[in-house]
Design a protein that fits this description.
single chain; 276 residues; alpha/beta; Purple Acid Phosphatase, chain A, domain 2; five-stranded mixed beta sheet; 14 strands; 36% helix; globular
């Protein structure tokens, strides 16, 4: 690509992306590829559930777009981008294979992100908090059934929007927040994740797992969730100016320098740099 094309890309220091779920039929790989082609980062952090081994074990599904995502990420690594991978619950079985790529991809179960002000952020997938959330098995089962239905609805609506030249728009996030049980689960997960980071002496936590993008402060601790590329089509970045921003495809960043409430889909400005 020529220099002008590269200049048109969003230039960031760090890109955090998780829950892509390659191998899952509802993965929004078309939108992800467009997003990745429009951004340059010095470091890319893959926060787990990149390949959905659990879905592939039930039913094999793979398209050329899924392959293109992996090729693009590895091409960025070959061009000098630092690539950090933190396995999640859906791709944990693949971590041994990924460890064979040591030297090309850094593999960590958890990772520390250091800020320019000396703050430390715990970076992990987020499934580590599942036991603490303590959701009954029957509720998980019901949640899975409802989730499959809402994903199908989201997928079909957005395929129609694409045919009519309309931008991607998540159809299910408002529904999640409006259902009391779902909202309470999200709130509890966010609170536990922030408290877990705080109890270990960290200033914040960056995770994924629950497919609910958010960037806020909870009792003085920064909570950042990258969201996913099945529903929200979102990612977290650190800009060249040192801001932490939550990006949503195709609308870009929604940023504020003020403390934000739980479940708010906005970004908290926070000066950082890549922790080496």
């Amino acid at each position: 690509m020529n220099s002008k094309g590269k200049e048109r890309r969003l230039q960031v220091r760090t890109l955090f992306v998780s829950d892509i779920h390659l191998g899952f039929k509802r993965a929004r790989t078309r939108e992800l590829l467009a997003f990745l082609h429009g951004i340059d980062a010095d470091c890319i952090v893959l926060g787990g559930d990149i390949v959905d081994a659990l879905s592939l074990a039930k039913r094999f599904y793979w398209t050329d777009e899924h392959t293109q995502v992996l090729r693009l990420l590895l091409a960025r690594r070959r061009s000098g981008v630092r690539l950090v991978y933190l396995p999640g619950n859906h791709d944990a079985a693949l971590s041994v294979f990924v460890e064979m790529l040591q030297g090309q991809i850094e593999v960590h179960r958890e990772w520390v992100y250091r800020t320019s002000r000396g703050e430390r952020y715990l970076v992990l997938h987020g499934d580590q908090f599942d036991e603490a959330v303590d959701c009954p098995a029957w509720l998980y089962w019901i949640g899975d059934r409802l989730y499959e239905g809402t994903l199908l609805y989201n997928h079909r609506v957005n395929e129609l929007r694409h045919l009519f030249g309309m931008p991607y728009r998540p159809q299910t996030e408002g529904l999640k927040a409006s259902i009391g049980t779902s909202a309470r689960f999200i709130r509890r997960f966010e609170t536990i994740a922030a408290a877990g980071a705080r109890d270990q002496g960290y200033d914040g936590v960056i995770c994924g797992h629950i497919h609910r993008a958010n960037l806020c402060t909870i009792d003085g601790t920064v909570y950042a969730n990258t969201g996913d590329w099945v529903e929200s089509c979102s990612a977290l970045v650190e800009t060249r100016a040192g801001e932490m921003q939550l990006l949503r495809w195709p609308h870009g960043a929604v940023a504020t320098s003020r403390v934000t409430p739980l479940l708010a889909d906005v970004a908290l400005s926070h000066r950082t740099h890549i922790g080496l």
